[in-house]
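Training component of the fellowship. As part of building independent skills, the fellow (R.M.) carried out the full modelling exercise for a liganded target. The chosen ligand was flavin-adenine dinucleotide. The inputs are recorded below so that the supervisory panel can assess the work.
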Amino acid sequence: MTSFQSTNVIVGAGLSGLMLSECLINRGEEVALIGPSDTRVQTICTWRRKDEPSQYADHVINSWDQWQFSFGDHEQTHFGNCFIYEALDGQSLKKALELRLARSSSFARIVEPVEHSRQIDNGFEITTKSARYTAANLFDSRPPEFASNTLAQQFFGIVVPTKCLREKLTHPKLMDFTLPQRFDNALAFTYILPLTDDTTLIEATLFARSQVPYEQLRDMAVEWLTANTDRDFNDDIILYDESGCLPMGDVIPRFAGNPIGLASGSARPCSGYALSGLEKQLRRLTQQNGYSAVSNTPYSKLSAWMDNIFLRVLNRDPRIGESIFSAMTHGLSGDRFAGFMTDNFTGIDALRLIATLPKSPFIRAVLKNDN
Ligand SMILES: Cc1cc2nc3c(=O)[nH]c(=O)nc-3n(C[C@H](O)[C@H](O)[C@H](O)COP(=O)(O)OP(=O)(O)OC[C@H]3O[C@@H](n4cnc5c(N)ncnc54)[C@H](O)[C@@H]3O)c2cc1C
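Fellow's submitted model of the complex:
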């Protein structure tokens, strides 16, 4: 077996592995990135301040300064004065990062999966089928285990031609509760994104204590489409699909070294949105020049406290989520909602948010920690 050495080894070539590689290379360090090329389709959305230029300009699919919610009995539209909701093509972003990194002489790329990794004297040992690597620093982005009280946010999205839809959406519908709930102890809704003039993403999303077969979420997305089209459904309508499962709550890293990305809690517990958390973790690494900074939670104590209570409520009864989101989206302006979702909010904003929420489930959750 051949042996190699590098200052930094990063396991997993998803977004966090690639973005961390670029960060370290830009600092003049040597990096070996190990893991199969990640060619998964990923539509990655995030709120961004209008006055901050997007660092992903080449990969923006679309952006909107309005977003909407459909609850059983009413609709709610948010207007962003300071924030936009931006959809990125994660697949093209990953490809561009791979190409940029390949130009650096300090970068080594190994596309085999890692079989074992462990701490040794003075560093780490990582093995693939054909080689053994040693490194002073190891960063690992392989998917973590979910803690026992962590909800799973599971989703399956289908992309269809917009012309199939009876009514063309002009901005995203972040939560649509018009389909009946169908999963036990879970909150299901549809997320609809008018990606381009010609294509629309319809994503069935579930907040639940355990996962369901992906086919059931696909069926739900198809049901939403069927309810919103005049055409007969046929599988050929689906241009492509995407799916995933994100942690809503604590994660337990499974491997040696510094966990990164989803494995280090980059996903916001109350929403599963992960990109802005990952960006914050990477900025810390640059500023503090410390390797473990990249594994620390990117979220403020205030948002951690709010998310913890919210998740306790949701864990007791996921279905209550609809009334909570209804109250929250009704009581907050678009900017305040986006500020909360991106962890850009103050104690006063938190009080304003708490004032919008139904009180009794939260009081029960605060008094009785039954996670
Ligand atoms: C379809 C989809 C849509 C999403 N949408 C949003 C969104 O709208 N907004 C948002 O903020 N976030 C979104 N996310 C979350 C997004 O995944 C994260 O922001 C981002 O992908 C960072 O993930 P990661 O690199 O930490 O982990 P992952 O993406 O899980 O990457 C882990 C990597 O580890 C690799 N790996 C696994 N086993 C091995 C092994 N043995 N050896 C080597 N490598 C291995 C995998 O191949 C993978 O590339 C979405 C995720 C998915 C999947």
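The panel noted the following from the submitted structure. The mean pLDDT is 94. The first helix runs from residue 15 to 26.
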